[in-house]
Amino acid sequence: MTELTVLIVIDMQKGMQDANRLANRLPPRNNPHAEDHIARLLTAWRAAGQPVVVVRHISRSPTSVFAPGQSGAEFQERFVPLAHEHVVEKNVPDAFINTGLERWLHVRGIRKLVLAGVSTNNSVESTARSAGNLGFAAAVVADATFAYAMTDFGGTPRSAEDVHLMALANLHGEYATVLTTDDVLRQLDRGLSASAAAR
Question: 32-87 pLDDT, tens per residue?
Fold first, then answer.
């Protein structure tokens, strides 16, 4: 039997989409095709019958676009979970904190995780760090995540690509393995082929 690998899609909500449309809401981002890559992963996971977890941020701030009841808290249309897929609601960046995600994975014997979503240096990085620290084998999909430009602690402006690449560098080899969408889909195909051959 093929070992289960869960795809975890993080914070692909309408509020993030709306913020991207409003030039004054957020700084420039990188990876403009990240959503397309996430959709490819989601389609492949569903076709393979592998588990999917869809995470959304629910803010404690009533003025946030991610506050309960706000349209921004809803999933973007192409990332709406199916009825049988597990939904995790979090109110801090890390999807493991106060959500029951760790227990959900352990109960199902799932040790392998593939992470995609937003943003690379925030919710994706914090979730990947916890995954590694908790003993899961995590992969972060570099082209299925994205970040925003920001100013570093020394006052130097950093591009979205710089922020993205540094977050990935923080994770790779320490908490997770950084892969591309094509890498992950090839691994998924190999695993399914091996399972079929073993029957």
Answer: 999 999 999 999 999 999 999 999 998 887 777 787 777 778 899 999 999 999 99
**57 class by beta-carbon count within 10 Å (0-12 exposed, 13-18 middle, 19+ buried):** buried
The contacts of residue 194 (CB under 8 Å, 6+ apart) are 2
SS3 state of residue 30:
coil
pLDDT in tens, 123-156: 999 999 999 999 999 999 999 999 999 999 999 9
The 10 Å Cβ neighbour count of residue 34 is 25
Q: Are 46 and 78 in contact (CB under 8 A)?
A: no
- Going by their DSSP bridges, the two strands 150-151 and 157-158 should be labelled as antiparallel
Q: Which tokens hold the place of 105? A: 């994975």
Question: What is the distance in angstroms between the CA of the first residue and the CA of the last residue of the chain?
Answer: 8
Please report the pLDDT score of residue 2 as a whole number.
62
Can you count the helices (H) and strands (E) in the chain? 6, 8
Model-level pTM? 0.92
Structure tokens at 127: 């979730």
53 conformational bin, left if phi > 0, alpha if psi -120 to 50, beta if neither: beta
Domains with residue ranges and CATH for the chain: 5-198 (3.40.50.850)
Amino acid letter, 98: N
